[in-house]
## 1
Amino acid sequence: MLFTSYEFIRFVILLVALYYVLPKKAKWPLLLLGSYVFYYYAGSKYLFYILGVTVITYVAGLLISRNKARADARFSEMKQLEKSGEGSAEEVGKEARKRYKEGQKKTRRRIMAIGITLALLILAVVKYTNFTIYNINGILSAFHVPKRIDFLTIALPTGISFYTFQAVSYVIDVYRDRHEAQKNFFKYALFVSFFPQLVQGPISRYGDLSKELFTPHVFSGRVVRRGLERVIWGYFKKMVIADRILPAVNALIETPENYKGAFVFCVMMFYALELYADFTGGIDITIGIAEMLGIPVKENFERPFFSKNIAEYWRRWHITMGTWFTDYIFYPISVSGPMLKLSKWSRKHLPERMGKRVPVYLASFVVWFTTGIWHGASWNFIVWGLGNFVVIMISQELEPLYAKFHKKVNTDGSTVYKSFQIGRTILLMSALRLFDCYRDVPLTFKMFGTMFTTWNWKALGNGTLLHLGLGRADYVILGLGTILLFAVSMAGRSGSVRDKLEKKLPMPLRWGLFTVLLLVIVVFGAYGLGYDASQFIYNQF
């Protein structure tokens, strides 16, 4: 059941209507039922995967919480026994209590590790088995071993990376005592499976989502209207921009031998626009549907193409994924025992600046390697992730030189220089995304090189672009849509555009504005392949 299908639209309308009609106690069960109906239509066999992850992490969280409750009770009892003199120092004294507390914490850590490992194992088996076989076969071939391992037929469940990471963060947060474990299995199942964010995120935290998810919200015309406005804007980005430019992107990358040099630059720009409109459009739909139900969901984008460097870009793009990797991979690695020992050694034996940064380098390397392989089980995604790592590390190491340059040239507050930084970031990110486009590491490097060796820029004006599945009218629609996208992003720098419209425009005019936008989607949206079969790009993750 795709977001861009009549079935999904009918499903959402019916669910929202029932949600506000049913009694309070039936509201969250309705959301759970609706979420599993949605996932059933994504593929009935996929239900076993999401149920497996849900059961494993629910049990792990419950066991951790119960262990802590028993440990706290026993710890308090030991203190009371010591005060009353009923127990010996060896049994209930300070050192005994310390040993008991540490032992129970180790038990909880083991439960957490087992729960996380089992949940991630499901993800690893379905997503990385064939990638592992591919690499093993490559090694066998390198050593001239004739035997090969057959690939397995494993379908990748929709959104498995998203709900697995969400469930893993729940277990870790229970272990860290950030919130208690959810005792009601069905409520926890709703947290994992909440249908709007199953397709492509955001990756929500239990502490952020649970309270509003289980609260029975009453109908509010303003809340439903604002959510609907966000949904309409998402459909505009997805159907008028992303799905319209999709045929041109596919044509350029499917026959790379015919489209070198300047056309690779077109791939960079076209794919950047498609990916942004597709992903942010899907997130707008997700957040809008949740908002129609009265449930706030974390924002996932903050105008990333206004970033002045790649590090800032990743603080603005897919925000919930970035914070997930930071909180659950980067920081734990940075403060781990082995890393602290390495940090001490590197500061002693290496130059001061380098010695301080070795742990950061290693933790960042792991994060970006994981980010790459999370996006896809292939080397092009790994190289893409490590490419981001290399650019960010080089940029950070050159900061002293940048500071000297800025001081000498006095670029502070310069609009021209800020525009240069933004343009540079867009070009760098778009160039790195070529690994995503061509899906082949050597081919990507080769095609990138042709931009400097094949000087065919005049071909962009000889009508070749009109043979990519798009006509002049399509390019006009794309141009106007992109201008509107840019204008809304500019207006959003100082606050929510919807809030501004609500304050400045009367209701009939606002409704008229969004009605026009809806008509634009109906008239100019890309249908056919894009409407009936085109998945959101991040579905694959």
Note: The longest helix spans residues 94-142.
## 2
Amino acid sequence: MRYFNTEGLCKSSEHYMVRLDDRLEKIKKLYVDRKKYFVINKGRQYGKTTTLRALAEYLQNAYIVLSMDFQMMSTANFADEQTFVLSFIEYVEELFFSEKDSMNLISSEALQSLSGLKSQEKKTMKEMFWHLSRICETSKKPIVLMIDEVDSASNNQAFIDFLAQLRGYYLNRENQPTFYSVILAGVYDIKNLKLKIRPAEEHQYNSPWNIAAKFKIEMSFSSDQIAAMLAEYEEDHQTGMQIAEVAEEIYQYTSGYPYLVSVICKYLDEDVPDKKGFECMSDVWTKRGIEEAVKLLLKENTPLFDSMIKQIDIYQDLRDIMEQILYQGRKIPFSPAEKSMNLGVMFGFLKEEDGHVAIANRIFEMYLLNLFIAQEAVRSDMYFYGQGSKNQFIAGRRLDMDLVLKKFAEHFSDVYGGNDEKFIEAYGRKLFLLYLKPIINGTGNYYIEAQTRDAKRTDVVVDYLGQQFVIELKIWHGNEYNERGEWQLVEYLDYFHLKKGYMISFNFNKKKAIGVKELWIAGKTLIEAVV
């Protein structure tokens, strides 16, 4: 029986997975068949290894594929040029000897000539590539070189020399036979890696890989691709799920990030059925079940989340961008030349959206919010007030959001009512999220709706034990803007099929009436707190 796999390589015979045939055909047609050298750069757990392994199998009828993984070579193998050459030749021998079909397609004399280099006292990169060129020249099929986890070797002079040789032979391929296509895969873009090349701690950006074609194949999953995977699961398990709706809901949380798609499905298959209220599989594979799976995921210390924490601790500018997007709704123009943005995109945490930089998916937004809130909670008065008042907001496992807004308005006015406009615009929405967090913590989730987020307005969506609340947080910009915001909230409530919505207005008018009021617009009830 197949299952959802989140650890390492996925195989269609063992795991439920998105079919890669279309992707593989595009890579073959647009890159390999055109003799391209290219790099697949994507964040961790983005399906790079699975794609490479599937591609190697997909290409085997037309090509000889040398599929390497630089993680299989230790740091010592890159210590100097001679050590690397010896290690690389042994790796090539191992690949040919393990694939008898490939051995029959190359010249045994050419391979023996390459092997003979190992016994020489001085082994150089130049000589190794000369012998590799002879193997490529005499091969009965074009040879494709694949190297996974290539950035694990990036901090070595031997690796730079290796890239330089690949580049030199690529540029002179008409006169010197070489690999038909070269595919490198890793998190880091090797064109941008800062590489240590001298003992004196000097650094430079390497340039030998400026021949690489830009890789434009989409690696994330679409809603339709997720649905096709779920259809296979449904055929085996007969849960009665609405496949298209479930696939779209998973996509809304993940934006198709492969690991996140798989891990949510894994929780739905293995963990959610053990939770109260999900005894029937027909209840599991629903929007409510997905919310439960997301809640479980956000409590885990996954390698992906650990990597995110590590990178934003190292790159403070990257963290600042994320906080400005989440808390202030800043529309920051996207530029791949801006270092922190480029790093965020490379790691898979950020993306370009309509000319602006955005958090890559809702799961990352929720995780980052939880992280930032937790780090600030220890010194936040609003978190303290929310935590101290928590019990009065919950009655019969139902959340009283009307009371939450009322108490927030009171506490906010007491603590921050005298602060200036600049402070409130920068921190007002953060303070509400700090107040709300301990109230729903462990039981509910919340996220900031990306479609409505800007410098003036942010919508927070709260899911709490089957209840859903939409709270609009906005900066006061006059009566006309306020009325327009009310109608926008009404339209958004229609989208969520809700009759009641909430608004918090941060109003800098000295004559404002602080407190909570109830409005009725187009059949909707709006509860508005003015602070």
Note: Confidence is low (pLDDT under 50) at residues 194-206.
## 3
Amino acid sequence: MQLEPSLLRLESGDLIRRLHETDPAFLFKQSLVQDTVRESLLHHERKRLHRLVGQALEELYPERRVELASLLCQHFSAGGDDDKALEYAALAGDAAARINANTEAVAHYTRAIRVAEQPGRPGALVQELYLKRGRALELGNDFAAALENYDALTELAFRRNDRHMELAALMAKGTIRSIPTTAYDMDLASVLNDNALDLARQLGDKSAEATILWNRMLMESRVGTSFYTALAYGEEALRIARENNLTERIAYLLNDISPLLVFKGQAELGERYNLEARDMWIEFQNLPMLTSNLGYAVMIHLAAGKYDLAIQESQQALRISREIDNKWNEAFSQAWVGEAYLERGDIAAAERVMLEAIALGKEYFPPTLVMTRSDLARLYTELGFPERGAQLANQALEVASAKFLAIRSVAIGALADASLEMGILEPVRKMLPEKIELTDFIGNPLFGIDVARSKIRLQLFDHDYQGALTETSKLLEFLFKNSIRQMQPNLLLLRARALSSLDRVPEAADDLYLALDIAQAMAAQWTLWQIFAALSRLEARRGNLELAADFRAHTQTLIASIAERTPEEYRARLRARAAREL
């Protein structure tokens, strides 16, 4: 390639130098010279040279187009070649998005949109760029800016009378409003999703219909009203996606249906769906969705009592989330796993991950301000600090009442437990339902079971042993039917207390030994020490003093192990509680 006369003159005048002997690239020796030379060129000459540079880079490095996309965009933009500038701005945005450089992706897509909005360019291209910019803003945790982006797309759709573009904007806004972010709004989500579904069906757009049903599933399940309504939406969306070979939508649906199947008694199918979606996210190199998938795996493993796996998946999700600076998933990966650390007897780790999730909650993933804060409240109560537990539970209840009404029961359960521990009964009686209906935990099991357990504890405190027996039996029937193992030993403990108090000691013993088998299989050390203590009391009552002593020794050994992994400020009360149980 022959050098431009201008370059030859600059090189001979010792104003520029080659980067490499074989590489036709140069550097100015001084920035002042560079500015002077640039300004001395006529405007049309500068444009011509920029185009030539862009063309030269394309010709010399065809295999590096993606790598050089940002630079190529600059040259073609300065050279007045809008088509090339648009092509490389979009390519640079895609390249940045692939490595989760979301700020850079937004900047590139914005540059591309400016060109793409010019008259005569296809609406589908403009729509695609807006959606990509919106997704980059979401992944950068700027949901307000993402909504503004989709509002701008809506306005553009109205100006162009483009109903497909209008639908795309409605769906994108519906997704943001349906998931538990700082922009979550169930009422708005419902309106957006309903309007979008009507429009999708008018247009005969099956891909859009599957997406909107997915939105509805998210709205109903994540902090919504009914797991089973959500599951019906998800299964219908998955049917449509499979019939129409919508590969990416299938991945999203498998991913987000998987935890719901656990509460339908299909835990193995849920785990299979989760792993199938994971393989797809790895194939697509979609790290944000991979971390979301691992977060759902934590929930699935917790319900199955697979605590080591829950911790393992959480740690992997946390590592990836921090690598890509995704704060939403960083909080999500730690939102529930504290329960696994607690059952492993690692109180320090349980407290640490809960506090980290709560700290991220306000700005990125608000459900931790209710769910995780309630878990931490229960932890403090069980360690012998009910006042601290009540304070946190009240904070959780305040957030739930303001934003997440469907999960108020979780905070109410935590507050009731702390109040009972402090002997404050009247407020507990007012806050808990008079009767627990089966639908309270079937309609929304993840949230309803907590308040059901608290109601049972109140019944035991009030010596309503028959009532407690009835309620625990209903709840255990649901847990066993649906293979939700995590809560089984704790509920069996409560039912054994009711049976023992009714002088039905052999049945109480059956429940305790069943609880022991399940807890040992799960290596649930926190629940195990309580089962050992209960068995020690029961066997002493039956006159089996040697066996009672063995169980007492097991309790003390476990408490000693747990105390070693408990912050020093909590150890004395932990040991005092264990002594009372024995």
Note: The first helix runs from residue 5 to 12.
